[in-house]
Design a protein that fits this description.
With 410 residues, the chain is of the alpha/beta class. It folds into two domains: 200 residues, Rossmann fold (3-Layer(aba) Sandwich), CATH 3.40.50.1100; 102 residues, Rossmann fold. It is built from 15 helices and 13 strands. Strand 1 and strand 2 form a beta hairpin. The longest helix has 15 residues. The chain is globular and about 75 Å long. The structure holds pyridoxal-5'-phosphate.
């Protein structure tokens, strides 16, 4: 077991052995992986991390696996881009983009969580993996499960973008499109998970799966030169990523890798599905479920499992939350492409547009170091830009026709 103590209830603190379980039997609180930080502090340091391969497994002592990594060996260690053009446009001094649109095999941050979840599923001896997904998780489980030789059942809302459905089907999983929204799919999956002994990555394997998100935070600190940023803006679906980015920062402090930690954590959501940001703005911990209606389908979770904890992290760190309209999402996707040459999916538009509003409102200070998390690639949600980009210049295959166009442009 090495550095892992076991599972621990976030509410009552009761401890459990490492098993594919996710709720406390006594208080129904969610279970989380607990580590022995004293032993990790002795085993891990900056030099050791720096010598390792550039993948998310370079932080393996802080991930809940017992043996060698088995899945997602090339996932992680995505670029931290210093975004000077965008910084100028937004009027801030030092701005970075954590660019999870590239490097990962299925081009979203979900390859982090799935690499850990499927390694753990193999350790537990499962031969079948499953998930409820808003799109990106479906791609990632389909792809990594294919390579790992696992049977796959993938459940999605039938209303997902056609391109997102094709990008799952190509890996030949058992893809089940449910007539309902994500929250309906998730409810159904909880029932199925009780009946079949499969590794549902975001249900019975969730405590292990969620830990994979920490690697995004570890990388931010390492890539900033072993420093935590002043501000980090994180998109929220279930809210898990946001809580784990904060957990990763705290862990690096706990084991002595960083000395100072004063980061403010900011939550970003689409106005058409903003239960977490609404709670933050109203100053309450009570998350009111909503019916999603937004083009940011990968973030469209109306009843977010970690919403309560995400809003607590935002409050505890002195951050804030912001939500943005579909038009603001599209404008931000185009802004990012135009200034930094990065094509983000709708979730990336949500994060950038929210950050822009937070800066304009003075909630993110212009003289501080800010990191914006861009979590998925724009090639996955091209439909969102239909009718919102210019047309090509259509010409005949001769130079005269081209020069007519050239005259108009210049
Ligand atoms: C899943 C997802 C997130 C965040 O998910 P959480 O459930 O909040 O952890 C962010 N961006 C993209 C692109 C995603 O697919």
């Amino acid at each position: 077991m090495g550095h892992i103590r076991g599972l621990k209830c976030r509410e009552c603190g009761r401890e459990y052995p490492i098993e594919p379980i996710y709720v406390c039997e006594f208080c129904f609180g969610p279970l989380e992986v607990a580590y022995d930080y004293n032993s990790i502090a002795k085993a891990l340091n900056k030099k050791k991390i720096e010598k390792r391969e550039k993948s998310l497994w370079r932080y393996r002592e802080l991930l809940p696996i017992a043996g060698e990594p088995q899945v997602g060996l090339t996932s992680g260690y995505t670029p931290l881009v210093k975004a000077d053009n965008l910084a100028k446009e937004l009027g801030v001094e030092e701005l970075y983009l954590k660019d999870d649109t590239v490097v990962h095999p299925t081009l979203s941050f979900k390859d982090r969580v799935v690499s850990v979840a499927l390694t753990k599923a193999k350790e537990f001896g499962f031969d079948t993996v499953a998930c409820a997904s808003t799109g990106n998780l479906a791609h990632s489980v389909s792809a990594h499960g294919a390579r790992a030789g696992l049977k796959r059942f993938i459940f999605i809302p039938a209303s997902l973008e056609p391109s997102k459905i094709i990008a799952s089907l190509v890996y030949e999983p058992n893809l089940v499109a449910v007539d309902g929204n994500y929250d309906d799919v998730n409810r159904l999956c909880s029932e199925i998970a009780n009946k079949y002994s499969w590794a549902f990555v975001n249900i019975n394997i969730r405590p292990f799966y969620a830990e994979g998100s920490k690697t995004l935070g570890f990388e931010i600190i390492e890539q900033l030169g072993w420093k935590a940023p002043d501000n980090v803006v994180v998109p929220c679906a279930s809210g898990s990523l946001l809580t784990k980015v904060w957990k990763s920062f705290k862990e690096f402090k706990e084991i002595g890798i960083i000395k100072e930690l004063g980061t403010k954590v900011f939550a970003a959501q689409a106005t058409g599905c903003s239960p977490i940001v609404t709670a933050i703005k109203q100053g309450t911990d009570v998350i009111r479920p909503v019916k999603p209606n937004t083009i940011a389908k990968s973030l469209a979770i109306g009843n977010p499992a970690d919403g309560f904890y995400a809003s607590q992290v935002v409050r505890e760190t002195g951050g804030d939350g912001e939500d943005v309209s579909d038009q603001e999402i599209i404008d931000a996707i185009k802004l990012l492409a135009r200034t930094e040459g990065i094509f983000a999916e709708t979730a990336g538009g949500v994060t950038l547009a929210s950050a822009k509003k937070l800066i304009a409102a003075g909630k993110i200070r212009r003289d501080e170091v800010t990191v914006i998390c861009i979590t998925g690639n724009g090639l996955k949600t091209q439909e969102a830009l239909q009718g919102h980009v210019a047309s090509p210049h259509y010409i005949k295959p001769n130079i005269a026709s081209f020069e007519e166009v050239l005259k108009k442009i210049s």
